């Protein structure tokens, strides 16, 4: 009678070990991903490490004093025109191998606006504002850091590219909305007093005021129209022409019906006009990515408060930010738990 030999699987133990190693590696990668996903909402910007009056852009290792007229004239080379408006023209330029943006006054007619924007850029330098690189007032130019993605108007087309498509998610878009609200908090409590973002009469114009960085953050860029609110005065007015449309706040519209518009009769207003616009800007930034419907639901109450007809009843930018951060943290925690449950 033949003896029956019991054979054990030849590759049993190595197969189990391989599976365990693969599972461990998957877990490590997942937690690394989660850590990167929910890093601090403060923007990473090189110029945040420099003292006032200094800059650091691109691959620079050390901070350098703002460039003056001689350095700008001799060492900055204009490459091509990348933007043009009533107040200034913007040129992609090069300085010592670094890409920079050179802004030149378009017309003497708008010199006051140009100089106001430059003054605001100087006084409001922070991690929320594009870095100033140099100034030459007598030539009507100043230089800033360069961001190749352009303004926030390019957001959807940028996230549609292969390089960024994986980042077209609720957390990236909500983080951009946070950047916008954080800037309003800064603007309404700035070192130069309470300022109003006047170049924001429609959604397109508002988004054009911000640059989109390569790591998908917002930086305020166009500071030509930031009037100061005097708490003892009659408020400010964004220009001397009639403003219309649902995007602008009710108090920014002509209140006297069929009577012809008159700038002299138009009442002033304050920073609460910026609050009215927050829901519309956030809706545009969030778009319709998965998870955005849940975010809109969480933000419904604060957005309803932003849309109150009486500006005195609207929340401050800081109060809006508190809710936004709470929603961001809640979504982060919920998403993290759901991913861990899958392990």
UniProtKB/TrEMBL annotation:
Enzyme Commission number(s) from the entry: 2.7.1.183
One Pfam family hit: PK_Tyr_Ser-Thr
PROSITE patterns linked: PROTEIN_KINASE_DOM
UniProt KW Ribosomal protein keyword: no
Membrane-related topology note: Single-pass type II membrane protein
Transmembrane spans: 12-34
Primary location group: endoplasmic reticulum
GO molecular function, one term: carbohydrate kinase activity
Reaction it catalyzes: 3-O-[beta-D-GalNAc-(1->3)-beta-D-GlcNAc-(1->4)-alpha-D-Man]-L-Thr-[protein] + ATP = 3-O-[beta-D-GalNAc-(1->3)-beta-D-GlcNAc-(1->4)-(O-6-P-alpha-D-Man)]-Thr-[protein] + ADP + H(+)
Keywords: ATP-binding, Endoplasmic reticulum, Kinase, Membrane, Nucleotide-binding, Signal-anchor, Transferase, Transmembrane, Transmembrane helix
Gene3D superfamilies in alphabetical order: Transferase(Phosphotransferase) domain 1
Record's GO cellular component terms: endoplasmic reticulum membrane
UniProt domain Protein kinase: residue ranges: 76-343
Described function: Protein O-mannose kinase that specifically mediates phosphorylation at the 6-position of an O-mannose of the trisaccharide (N-acetylgalactosamine (GalNAc)-beta-1,3-N-acetylglucosamine (GlcNAc)-beta-1,4-mannose) to generate phosphorylated O-mannosyl trisaccharide (N-acetylgalactosamine-beta-1,3-N-acetylglucosamine-beta-1,4-(phosphate-6-)mannose). Phosphorylated O-mannosyl trisaccharide is a carbohydrate structure present in alpha-dystroglycan (DAG1), which is required for binding laminin G-like domain-containing extracellular proteins with high affinity.
Protein's name in the database: Protein O-mannose kinase
């Amino acid at each position: 009678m033949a003896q029956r030999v019991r054979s054990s699987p030849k590759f049993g133990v190595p197969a189990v070990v391989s599976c365990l190693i693969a599972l461990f590696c998957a877990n490590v990668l997942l937690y690394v991903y989660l850590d990167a996903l929910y890093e601090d909402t403060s923007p990473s910007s090189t110029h945040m490490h420099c003292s006032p009056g200094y800059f650091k852009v691109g691959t620079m290792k050390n901070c350098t004093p703002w460039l003056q007229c001689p350095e700008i004239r001799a060492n900055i080379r204009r490459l091509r025109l990348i933007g043009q408006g009533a107040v200034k023209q913007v040129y992609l330029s090069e300085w010592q191998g670094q890409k920079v943006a050179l802004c030149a006054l378009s017309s003497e007619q708008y010199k006051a606006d140009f100089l106001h924007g430059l003054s605001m850029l100087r006084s409001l330098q922070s991690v929320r504002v594009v870095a100033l690189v140099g100034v030459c007032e007598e030539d009507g130019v100043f230089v800033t850091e360069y961001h190749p993605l352009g303004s926030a108007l390019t957001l959807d087309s940028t996230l549609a590219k292969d390089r960024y498509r994986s980042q077209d998610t609720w957390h990236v878009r909500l983080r951009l909305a946070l950047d916008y609200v954080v800037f309003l908090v800064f603007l309404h409590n700035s070192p130069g007093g309470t300022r109003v973002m006047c170049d924001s009469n429609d959604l397109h114009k508002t988004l054009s005021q911000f640059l989109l960085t390569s790591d998908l953050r917002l930086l305020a860029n166009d500071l030509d129209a930031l009037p100061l609110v005097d708490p003892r005065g009659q408020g400010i007015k964004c220009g001397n022409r009639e403003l219309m449309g649902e995007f602008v706040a009710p108090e920014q519209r002509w209140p006297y019906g069929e009577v012809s518009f008159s700038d002299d009769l138009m009442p002033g207003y304050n920073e609460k006009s910026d609050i009215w616009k927050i829901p519309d800007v956030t809706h545009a930034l969030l778009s319709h990515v998965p998870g955005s419907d849940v975010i809109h639901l969480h933000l419904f109450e604060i957005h309803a408060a932003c849309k109150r007809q009486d500006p005195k009843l609207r929340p401050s930018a800081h109060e809006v930010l508190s809710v936004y951060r709470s929603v961001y943290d809640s979504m982060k925690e919920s998403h993290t738990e759901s991913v861990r449950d899958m392990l």
